[in-house]
Amino acid sequence: xxxxxxxxxxxxxxxxxxxxxxxxxxxxxxxxxxxxxxxxxxxxxxxxxxxxxxxxxxxxxxxxxxxxxxxxxxxxxxxxxxxxxxxxxxxxxxxxxxxxxxxxxxxxxxxxxxxxxxxxxxxxxxxxxxxxxxxxxxxxxxxxxxxxxxx
Length: 151
Prior knowledge:
The protein is mainly alpha-helical. It has a domain at 13-103. The protein is built from one helix and no strands. It has one helix at 13-135. The chain is rod-shaped and about 205 Å long. Keywords: Membrane, Transmembrane, Transmembrane helix. The chain crosses the membrane at residues 115-139. This is DUF4164 domain-containing protein.
C-alpha cells in the first residue's frame, strides 16, 4: 500500500480566524459604503421627487388661474360679440325694411309707368290707324263738294 504523505498546516486557528474576520470586515466595509452611496442617491431622488411634486402643484395652480382668466376673457368676448351681433341685426333689419319699402315704391312706379306706356302706345296706334284711314280715303273730314249747274 502506498501511503500518502501527511500535510501539515503551519497556521494556527487564531490566524485563520483573524484572516477570515479581516476579510469579512473588509467586505462589510465595502457593503456599508455601497449602502451609504445608495442611501445618498435615494435621498437625492427623494429631494428631486419632492421638487417635482411642488413644481407640479405650482403648475396646476397656474393652469387653473390661466383657465379661469381665459374663461372670463371668453365670456366677456362672447357678451361683447353678442351685443355687436344684436346691434348689427337691428341695423340690418331696419335697412331691410327700408329697402323693402323702396322696392315696393319702385314696383308701384313701374306699374304706373307700364300703364302710361300702354296708354301712349294705344294712342299712337289709334293716331296711326286714323291717319292711314284718312290718307287712303276711308274716312273723310270734309264735306263733298256739290257741282252747281249754272245754266
